[in-house]
Amino acid sequence: MCPNLAPSLHSFPMAKAPKNAISPTRAEDYPEWYQQVIKAADLAENSPVRGCMVIKPWGYQLWENMQRALDDMFKATGHQNAYFPLFIPMSFLEKEAQHVEGFAKECAVVTHHRLEPKPGGGLQPAGELEEPLIVRPTSEMIIGATYAKWVQSYRDLPILINQWANVVRWELRTRMFLRTAEFLWQEGHTVHATEQEAIEETERMIDVYADFAENWMAMPVIIGSKTADERFPGAVDTLAIEAMMQDRKALQAGTSHFLGQNFSKAQEIRYQDTQGDLQYAWTTSWGVSTRLVGALIMTHSDDDGLVLPPRLAPTHVVILPIYRDDQSRSEVLDYVHQLRDELRAQQYAGAPIRVEIDDRDIRGGEKKWHHVKRGVPIRIEVGPKDLEAKSMFVGRRDQPKSFSMPRESAAVKVAEMLGEMQQGLFDRAEKLRSDHSRVITSEAEFRDFFTPKTDSVHEIHGGFATCHFADHDVVQPLLKELKVSIRCVPRDHNDQPGTCFLTGQPAAKQAIFAKAY
Amino acid sequence: MCPNLAPSLHSFPMAKAPKNAISPTRAEDYPEWYQQVIKAADLAENSPVRGCMVIKPWGYQLWENMQRALDDMFKATGHQNAYFPLFIPMSFLEKEAQHVEGFAKECAVVTHHRLEPKPGGGLQPAGELEEPLIVRPTSEMIIGATYAKWVQSYRDLPILINQWANVVRWELRTRMFLRTAEFLWQEGHTVHATEQEAIEETERMIDVYADFAENWMAMPVIIGSKTADERFPGAVDTLAIEAMMQDRKALQAGTSHFLGQNFSKAQEIRYQDTQGDLQYAWTTSWGVSTRLVGALIMTHSDDDGLVLPPRLAPTHVVILPIYRDDQSRSEVLDYVHQLRDELRAQQYAGAPIRVEIDDRDIRGGEKKWHHVKRGVPIRIEVGPKDLEAKSMFVGRRDQPKSFSMPRESAAVKVAEMLGEMQQGLFDRAEKLRSDHSRVITSEAEFRDFFTPKTDSVHEIHGGFATCHFADHDVVQPLLKELKVSIRCVPRDHNDQPGTCFLTGQPAAKQAIFAKAY
Q1: For A218, phi and psi rounded to 5 degrees?
Q2: Which domains does chain B carry?
Q3: pTM
Q4: B positions 31-60 inside 8 Å of A (CB)
Q5: What are B408-450's pLDDT values in tens digits?
Q6: Does residue A228 sit at the B interface (CB-CB below 8 Å)?
Q7: How far apart are CA A491 and CA A508, in angstroms?
């Protein structure tokens, strides 16, 4: 018997599934749901090395698609890629006081350059280095040392370089994609002749990140400045994009730092200006990482697993052939191969539609759920009856019920549906954020907003509170008590002065307050 | 005065240059010439970290083009990308005896996870790790540990995964691109149910590398097996591609290893076969690195700098506008923008022609040599006279003399010239190899072939000697004396038995002998 026969895919429509594919659900235990989505979608797993993950092919393809889109955006804004060393001599890190303060507590230190047999068996480190090397937690210090050599004259500026690389920060509490000891990222490092140009670059790149988050990831973000205690160590100003996850916590998804002359002074990055005078340059740095994969998962996925915005999905459409015997197999396969080729000839978002046929010899229901959990935007099931009716059975990852559709409309409709889904995911995420954002003007309301109403540690509550506040230090104890932080001072906010939600004092600025990852 | 005016580009044809752009020339001092080509082409430079290089934008674009082409070839042969940890616990390395022997002597060892202030100032490592971590020199041990979990049944096989990553080997004598402490590479790691399948994979991937070397890099290669002492530590068989550089030395440009069951036994990678019996799997690994950039430089470049095979060149055509005043500037720029757009609409080797305009405000001669040294395949100079004559002045990087050409033939001719250059570079490299390859049957001839004829340490001599040899250990002292090594036992060789060039004994196999990088 052909294992694809019973039960047929059609007999297992998603809406009738006995239960959700992911257990626990978001409502039951959001952090555990997140881990289970990653597992069910085969995105990544913990490795035998403490705090490091293995990014599996489906997760890595997602990251590759992100990389490709971002890389094109960086190049379109005049940047070039380069590559700098993995290691930073310890003495380099000491040059910028705040910087070393920020990174010294969690870095991997290389002290030896070989292994030798240990008396009694096994190996031990040998060949001690004269100066320990740090595995880069970020590359300001090693790249800056090189820039100091490259920059002589105003003619050498600006330098607009990006690097795709791995970095290591010895995090104690890790969570896949969100916080791991090693992670993959890109880091832009630029040098400018004037403060104004460097500030413009900082703004330009946070705008690129916001564009990517909203138009590729379908994830609405707020652009704003970090307060002093949340700034990048050594930065004058840190701009960030902040997104609301489905548990209403904030996630910082990308940062762009205006470094002023702090690093150019620490590293002697100086240039001769048009008058022949020596000036310190102005620098920036900016980065996003594999954390974006975590943000994407937590923004869109549901209790049946991963949901992918079509523009980043490794596969847009999976076609599942169903047949009873060798003859229907051959007919169905002909039909689906034609369908695949026709779809591949179509464009979605400026590139060919990515279509796969899953002809594995496993049960239809299992096969279908495999793709549901992995977030493939559109499933098309084709059986012998569809051949007769010249139809196909379509499942959209963003809708509970599958439906039949004429085969002849596939070419037009599939691209259209992908576009609808991309927009629909963004709209849904924006509605969630808007439903759980509010302006708060009193301590009582603030406390109420951020306090669970039940005994469950898993209660989803809170959201984004926009509050005037007068003094960072004064609000800090309350924030600590409620486990809330200041996410950012939004750039696009109405800058009306008001009164501090806590003290009632006049306050010039509003900020977004939230619990956060 | 417009700095583009005098001297005009046309007055500095390459053939009349007072001397070569690179000093020393290849004949004068080949190793130093290599360093100077890298410097003049702005490909890379030494970093402040011992043995590590900075890959500059032009060099990195070249690597990106290589990556893109190889990645497509890997995917076309059924592989997917993934990412595994940078660190390997020391105990993992101990599991395969030959493997640890091969890598323990040159690895970066992480022993601490933070820095703390040192009494008296500065920092010192703190937070000693329970088990030291090795920065991966290659990832068989960390990837194998994960595969052991993934592989349960024959249904899980084959696993066909590739990783793009950085690796570290603590080399004492480094040379940019060819041998650096940190380098970028890809490493494929596959698992198979049968020996036959694993051997086929090993062969398939060395064929992919040979295809890439010959058809993208325009670098002819010989495919063969390494002798036991040159094998990858732990491999049963290592296949390599070997190329001849212009100093007639061999360079190993890529390797593909059949690992047998050595690693699956060391790491317990076992699967249940169709009968339900537990079997050790068969594994392979294969890799190429940024060393390919070094190979490309040494294969094609000349005494004026880098020469790039068009398929990998970051820029195919650079257009250099020449003008005298604002009016001619505007006319010339119109002309070159149209030319650029027209060329960009053309295809070469299945992709749009990559065209840039260099309108920097520097002297024409300087600008032209800038692009010559960087290896841009085609330069097109356009001045006011070309507008009148509807012509353009074309310089090919592979020909000494520039020539005028009708503007209207640009679209067709440029793609044609790029194709000619790609083939011409391959043919020239193949001729060099053929001119300096010979079959050698006696010790006297062997000594003569590999001994310089002058006192100069920089004399270019030797080449590839194909010799029958009976016993590896017996020829070893002679090889050591002459600084020659066995490069490989060529796969495609006529396998006629013969007599050993050294001992006269019967010998079943021929090998390629050469001095090597």
Answers
A1: 55, 35
A2: 30-300 (3.30.930.10), 314-422 (3.40.50.800), 437-514 (3.30.110.30)
A3: 0.95
A4: 45, 47-49, 52-57, 60
A5: 999 899 999 999 999 999 999 999 999 999 999 999 999 999 9
A6: no
A7: 14
Residue B191 has a pLDDT of 98
User: By mean pLDDT, which of A357-361, A422-426, B163-167 is the weakest?
Assistant: A357-361
- Both tokens of A353, joined, read 């539609």
B107, A115: Cβ pair inside 8 Å? yes
Residue B159 near chain A (CB below 8 Å): no
Which of A221-225, B168-172, B177-181, B274-278 is least confident? B168-172
Interface test with B, best of A109, A112, A191 (most B CBs within 10 A): A109
What's the first-to-final CA gap in chain A, in angstroms? 51
- The whole-number average pLDDT for the span A110-125 is 94
What phi and psi, each to the nearest 5 degrees, are found at residue B104? Answer: -65, -25
Tokens of A46: 């913990």
What is the tens place of the pLDDT at every residue in B332-366? 999 999 999 999 999 999 999 999 999 998 888 99
Q: How many DSSP H helices and E strands does chain A contain?
A: 14, 27
Whether the Cβ atoms of residue B74 and residue B67 lie closer than 8 Å to each other: no
Nearest to B297 by CA among B23, B35, B514, B19: B35
User: A84 near B166, Cβ under 8 Å?
Assistant: no
Concatenating the DSSP letter of every residue in A199-225 gives HHHHHHHHHHHHHHHHHTS----EEEE
Structure-model confidence comparison of residues B221 and B361, the more confident one:
B221
pLDDT confidence bin for A18, thresholds 50/70/90: low
**Number of residues assigned to chain A:** 517
Going by C-alpha positions, the residue among B266, B270, B184 that lies closest to residue B233 is B266
Three-class secondary structure assignment of A389-432:
HCEEEEEECCCCCCEEEEHHHHHHHHHHHHHHHHHHHHHHHHHH
Higher pLDDT, B126 or A411: B126
The residue in chain A having the minimum alpha-carbon distance to the alpha carbon of residue B89 is A49
Query: Which pair of tokens denotes residue A376?
Result: 């493939």
Q: Convert B66-121 into a string of H (helix), E (strand) and C (coil).
A: HHHHHHHHHHHCCCEECECCCEEEHHHHCCCHHHHHHHHHHCCEEEEEEEEECCCC
Show residues of chain B in contact with A52, CB under 8 Å: 85-87
Q: How far apart are CA B11 and CA B365, in angstroms?
A: 8
Distance CA A436, CA A515 (A): 12
**Residue A166 in contact with partner chain B when CB distance is under 8 A:** yes
User: Degrees (nearest 5) of the Cα angle A50, A56, A60?
Assistant: 110
Q: CA of B110 to nearest chain A CA: how many angstroms apart?
A: 4
CB pairs under 8 A between A and B: 186
Question: Residue A147: what residue type?
Answer: Y
Name every chain A residue with its beta carbon within 8 A of the beta carbon of B167: none
CB distance from A120 to chain B under 8 Å? no
DSSP-based three-state secondary structure for B152:
coil
Angle between helix axes A410-435 and A291-300 (nearest 10 degrees) is 90
| A30-40 and A291-300 helices, crossing angle to 10° | 110
Which amino acid is residue A292, in one-letter code?
L
pLDDT score, position B226? 96
**Contacts for A102-105: CB closer than 8 Å, 24+ residues apart:** A102/A232, A102/A233, A102/A234, A103/A134, A103/A137, A103/A138, A103/A169, A103/A233, A104/B114, A104/B115, A104/B116, A104/B123, A105/A170, A105/B114, A105/B115
Confidence of residue B171 (pLDDT cuts 50, 70, 90): confident
The rounded distance, in Å, linking the Cα atoms of A77 and A257 is: 17
The pLDDT of residue A494? 67
Nearest partner of A17 among A404, A392, A400, judged by Cα: A400
B85 close contact with A: CB closer than 8 A: yes
